[in-house]
Automatic annotation (TrEMBL):
InterPro entries: At3g05675-like (IPR038920), At3g05675-like_ankyrin (IPR058039), BTB/POZ_dom (IPR000210), SKP1/BTB/POZ_sf (IPR011333). Pathway: Protein modification; protein ubiquitination. Keywords: Ubl conjugation pathway. It comes from Colocasia esculenta. This is BTB domain-containing protein. One of its GO terms (biological process) is protein ubiquitination.
Length: 530
């Protein structure tokens, strides 16, 4: 390993301290770590603080003090230790703080905050350097780089243009520099033959900073190496937007950013409906319980995010959802017909079990599709489809509760959706849904309470009650009186619709009386809370 020296000159000091830094045989500075300049600044700040503190008042020397003052002098006469090649040896820097020149005759010491901290950096063979590049950074940092014109001209269009008009220039003042540390590192990369190898251990964020400086210098070889590195290295999710926004505009030479951008976008036209339809079809056809359950949850979550982030996403997969729903309904109807055939109940369990499992699978698929449609506010048409399944309702009564009860979960979810305002079917559709499916739901209610862990009684009962209360008053009365008959027979095994019953009661018997009295009636919600 060759070496060069970093020289630091501080205001108010007369001694220059040399710090060895390792360099490869090619002449590349082997210290691109972000801690290099930071450690230098910390050491300088510490020294400035020690210099700014006033010296203690002089005291009359004693015999003991004279002996103590001679002791360090004897130690300094020992052999000089060889300097280490370690980068910015903090211990040696700390030991050098004792070599500070005495204050000026005026007795004034400059404030530490006003001192300009200077750093000198050399590349390649320091003796053959023919150009100085001076950078001014934040916090009073000034960096002077000893470089070679031929290296900078060969690698940087900026320096090539600058030096072509002033070939005899021996110093270039770059003025204020936003990122001094990365600027020095990027110039050091001009002395490196294998730049990509030097980038291997760098973070994505640091490489993006190098690209920014390399662009300003017209350092095309560096930009290319950085882009190749970004194309190969994985990004974490938080880095993706930063990478894309930082490199999208780059068009340099014969290479571009398309290989990197292909990671996040495709040139091949792809219809979202086709992809979503394929994914939904794969999930619906899966017979593996765990994989199907986890993917249903994941796809549902992702589609929710699409609905929130993309305003036009409502129509992306509505047709796909309805086609898939129709396929599940057709399959469910065939299974119900098969299970309702005479003599089916007498068949061995191994013959009936596949049909029962398939009914449960289709019911679960329908429930998942309804959940997606409810979240996307496109379930109105499905409510009409479900309300018109008179044959399925008739077959429903012929099947054992253990085989059919999961189908009533679909009915319950529709009532919840209407009660929440997620679905807005017409009055006739709501009325038909209650007339056709409320009684089958009541018949299966006890099974749903005890066999379905995800079944929330309070939510379902509130949804049923709110759906009933959207109908005309006379329709509310007919449905609630039928419910009352069932509730008085089976009690807790029936949905508890007492809150809806109270609202209907006040609408029927109290509101007309109050209107006759000319008083403003209380709202149903206020009355139900009293």
């Amino acid at each position: 390993m060759a070496d060069f020296r970093v020289r630091r000159v501080e205001a108010g000091q007369t001694k220059i301290r040399n710090v060895p830094i390792a360099v490869t045989p090619e002449g590349f500075w082997c210290c691109p770590s972000p801690m290099v300049l930071q450690k230098t600044l910390k050491s300088q700040t510490y020294q400035n603080k020690s210099k700014s503190s006033p010296p203690p008042p002089p005291q009359a020397p004693t015999k003991a003090s004279v002996q103590k003052t001679h002791a360090p002098a004897e130690k300094k006469q020992g052999p000089v230790q060889p300097r280490s090649k370690a980068i910015f040896d903090q211990k040696r820097l700390a030991s050098d703080t004792s070599t500070v020149s005495p204050p000026a005759a005026s007795g004034r010491t400059p404030a530490a905050g006003n001192l300009q901290r200077k750093i000198s950096v050399g590349f390649g063979q320091p003796d053959s350097s023919d150009l100085k590049v001076v950078l001014s950074g934040k916090e009073g940092i000034a960096v002077r780089m000893s470089v070679h014109k031929n290296v900078l001209v060969a690698n940087s269009t900026f320096f090539a243009d600058r030096l072509s008009t002033q070939s005899h220039m021996s110093s270039v003042d770059m003025g204020e520099c936003e990122d001094v540390e990365i600027y020095v590192e990027t110039v050091g990369l001009m002395y490196c033959k294998e730049m990509r190898q030097r980038l291997v251990k760098q973070s994505v964020q640091r490489v993006l900073r190098i690209i920014k400086v390399a662009e300003s210098l017209g350092f095309h070889a560096c930009i290319k190496s950085c882009l190749e590195y970004l194309e190969a290295i994985p990004w974490v999710e938080e880095e993706e937007e930063n990478v894309v926004s930082s490199i999208r505009h780059i068009r340099c030479g014969n290479f571009g950013v398309s290989p990197i951008l292909k990671r996040v976008s495709s040139d091949i036209p792809n219809t979202p409906n086709d992809t979503i339809s394929h994914i939904i079809g794969l999930v619906l056809k899966s017979n593996e319980e765990r994989g199907r359950r986890e993917m249903k949850s994941l796809v549902l979550k992702l589609l929710k995010e699409n609905s929130i982030l993309i305003n036009s996403s409502i129509d992306i997969c509505s047709k796909t959802l309805y086609n898939s729903s129709q396929g599940c309904l057709d399959s469910l109807l065939l299974l119900f017909r098969q299970a309702a055939e005479p003599g089916y109940a007498d068949k061995p369990l191994e013959n009936k079990d596949p049909v029962i499992r398939q009914i449960a699978l289709e019911a679960d698929n329908l429930l998942w599709l309804v959940e997606i449609m409810a979240n996307r506010r496109v379930a109105d048409e499905f409510v009409m489809m479900w309300a018109g399944l008179g044959e399925l309702v008739a077959l429903h009564q012929k099947l054992p509760i253990a085989s059919r009860h999961l189908v009533s979960c679909v009915t319950a979810r529709l009532f919840v959706g209407i009660g929440r305002g997620e679905m807005l079917p017409s009055k006739d559709t709501r009325q038909l849904l209650l007339q056709v499916w409320l009684q089958p739901l009541i018949d299966d209610y006890n099974w749903l309470l005890h066999s379905c862990r995800s079944f929330d009684r309070n939510v379902v009962e509130e949804g049923i009650g709110r759906t009933i209360l959207t109908l005309p008053l006379e329709d509310q009365q007919s449905i609630l009186l039928l419910w009352l008959g069932s509730f008085l027979k089976i009690g807790d095994s029936c949905p508890n619709l007492q809150r809806a019953f109270e609202v209907w009661w006040r609408r029927t018997f109290i509101r007309p009386y109050m209107e006759q009295q000319g008083n403003a009636p209380l709202s149903d919600e206020t009355r139900s809370s009293t």
